[in-house]
Design goal:
This protein is mainly alpha-helical. The protein has one domain (6-254). It has helices spanning 6-27, 40-54, 69-107, 125-140, 143-157, 169-207, 213-232, 236-254; strands at 113-116, 121-124. A two-stranded antiparallel sheet has the order 1-2. 31% of the residues are buried. InterPro entries: FliR, T3SS_IM_R. This is Flagellar biosynthetic protein FliR. One of its GO terms (cellular component) is bacterial-type flagellum basal body. One of its GO terms (biological process) is bacterial-type flagellum assembly.
């Protein structure tokens, strides 16, 4: 007759529960999967399926009583680790959002706001368009599959029970600065072109005060901005591909991997 102790039962349950907590933490915020358009039940089932598939491949999990405070702390710790891994990719896609915001402000389309019912915020239409463009590039590069692979490898590189505060948390904070620098890098050509246009109309307003520069400059600035957007489409994919590689590498190195 098979008899199991409470510790053995907790270990068996933990081999599925702890991986589920980390994976679900990543799926809460990871692009595409963490979007509000994806039902929570689908995310839970997807996380359970992945946890069940990798349960037998994981290193031994710590024997912790499932009803103890240590089990609660371990569950929260795995949720935070998964959340931080998913947040790195969240910053990657929002590079395109900030890029669209910068270009909208330069070309005078910042007032063209569209509400996003999924995320509950309001962004310029150009930001929404660039976000969709960046998402399609990320999918074309199979970035979602690589991200799930890194998430699975995290159990080998950073086993369950490892100290959360031993992770390079300051490097994680620096990724926020990387978000703004990457957005500005993509937006610099358009910003410089729009700056030249504004300087030109400034010179015209000083040399010919009788001209209605505001009536002439606004449509011309918008047309020049749309032209810059059109010209940027040929160069953004290659640059954004490098940013995707950089974000995935940072995600892998965050949990102790070497590239």
């Amino acid at each position: 007759m098979l008899s199991l102790t409470s510790t053995e039962i907790s270990t068996i349950i933990g081999s599925l529960w702890w991986p589920f907590c980390r994976i679900m933490g990543a799926f809460m915020i990871m692009p595409l999967i963490g979007n509000a358009y994806v039902p929570v039940m689908i995310r839970i089932l997807f996380a359970l399926c992945i946890s069940g598939l990798i349960a037998n491949l994981l290193p031994p999990v710590p024997a912790v009583d499932a009803l103890s405070f240590s089990a609660l702390y371990l569950a929260v710790e795995q949720l935070l680790i998964g959340f931080m891994l998913g947040f790195i990719l969240y910053l990657l896609l929002h590079v395109m959002t900030i890029l669209g915001t910068i270009m909208s402000m330069q070309m005078g389309m910042a007032m063209a706001i569209m509400n996003d019912p999924a995320n509950g915020d309001a962004n310029p239409i150009l930001s929404q368009w660039f976000l969709l463009f960046g998402t399609l590039i990320f999918l074309a590069l199979d970035g979602h599959l690589v991200a799930i692979g890194i998430l699975v490898d995290s159990f080998r590189l950073w086993p369950i029970g490892s100290d959360l505060f031993s992770l390079p948390l300051m490097g994680f904070v620096h990724r926020v600065g990387w978000l703004f620098s990457a957005s500005l890098m993509l937006a610099i050509p358009a910003v410089l072109a729009m700056l030249l246009v504004n300087i030109t109309f400034g010179v015209l307003s000083r040399s010919a005060p009788s001209l209605n520069i505001f009536a002439l400059g606004f449509p011309m600035t918008m047309l020049m901005g749309l032209l810059c957007v059109l010209l940027s489409l040929s160069g953004i994919p290659s640059r954004y591909s490098d940013l995707c590689l950089d974000a995935l590498s940072a995600m892998y190195q965050f949990i102790g991997g070497t590239v």
